[in-house]
Amino acid sequence: MATKSVLLIIGGGIAAYKSLELIRECAKRGIRTRAILTRAGAEFVTPLSVGSLTGEKCYTDLFDLTDEAEMGHIELSRAADLVVVAPATADLLSKPANGVAGDLASTALLATDKPVLFAPAMNVRMWAHPGVQRNVATLKEDGALFVGPNEGDMACGEYGAGRMAEPSEIADAVEAYFAASSDGRLKGRHVVVTAGPTHEPLDPVRYIANRSSGKQGYAIAAALAKLGARVTLVSGPTELPAPAGVDTVRVQTAREMMEATMSALPADAAICCAAVADYRPEIETNQKIKKERGGLSSIPLTENPDILRSISSLDVGRPGLVIGFAAETDDVLCNAEAKRKRKGCDWIIANDVSSGTGTMGGENNSVTVISEAGQESWENMPKARVADRLAAYIADALSKRAT
Ligand code: CTP
Fold first, then answer.
1. Considering the chain, what is the average pLDDT of its residues?
2. What pLDDT, on a 0 to 100 scale, did the predictor assign at position 277?
3. What are the CA-CA distances from residue 306 to residues 133, 343, 370 (Å)?
4. How far is the CA of 69 from the centre of ligand 1 (A)?
5. Is 272 a catalytic site residue?
6. What are the structural domains of the chain?
7. Would you call 318 helix, strand, or coil by DSSP?
8. Range with the poorest average pLDDT among 151-160, 294-303, 371-380
9. Does the beta carbon of 192 lie inside 6 Å of ligand 1?
10. How far is the CA of 137 from the centre of ligand 1 (A)?
């Protein structure tokens, strides 16, 4: 049974015929392929041949409502482990580089949360064109992977760089990506992650909460698991599905989160990503508070336990690396560094949640990693990429501590 899968986007170029071979090459290596064939691609190969080789429906048009009912284009873009564009025409490179979507293929390229591997194929002069090269540079900066193009004779009669990499080379690149992404650097490690908001009940129907979506914490848990760690995710109430391969413990309140986190220890690292409510109503009533019985003019609050501080100050069984988050609205870096010291954690990840940059609930995050050694600001990027990079940093830090 294939464990990894690829979404193959076949663009409109003469090299499209080689993509049929690529599907077979992937199958030989135990990689399942599902394909999107662009309108131009369908001038070179047919949906029938693509569908026969993948053994799956070949997706061709964004507005095919039957397809949407079966599998929406967003789900299609995310169901695979890797997106491969082969042949990647100048047009297919330009759309994601410029945030443009017009058809199923370009929409999938913007909607995916997976890395994209491009195998460009075009005329030598087109490939050398500064506009194309600019788009390639942008895509690389955004984290895209490339294989080829190779140099050689071209279908148009010219010679030079622009030939699509051979199917076996593309399949090698796919395999290399899968090997690198599950290189097991955190194998044998246990990491505890807290995520999401907490709900602090006032009565059976009301609670105090915050805007945390849990997306960043879930992405971190998934990224750590990808590197081979055993991950316990202690999550407050969120809409998110449990990440694959992660032991997810669902809680409601700060006190429950504290208890679940502490009982998940020992761990090599703890990452407190949750937006824990600092306070809870002093009294929780079992009956709904009614206006006619006097209602409420104020809610007496009492402080919740601080999970991050408690883990950081453990004398026995403190994880080797404790990481906190600091969502701040002003004086972000100063406040975050003060918070790191106050809480006693090793690193703090600062992010600006003031309106305008607002990252709470969003797909992207701009963070600065602060440690004793200094500060490092990362460009704005999808939360999944923040998570991958952070997981790689954690793997590095733990391996250094071990030696
Ligand atoms: N945190 C925690 N338990 C709490 C409160 C916060 O574990 N009861 C953790 C969060 O998960 C985060 C870090 O502490 O990693 C900072 O959270 P934040 O709410 O910014 O800190 P506070 O101490 O609540 O400071 P502030 O006064 O800015 O709210």
1. 90
2. 97
3. 50, 9, 20
4. 42
5. no
6. 5-177 (3.40.50.1950), 185-402 (3.40.50.10300)
7. coil
8. 151-160
9. no
10. 39
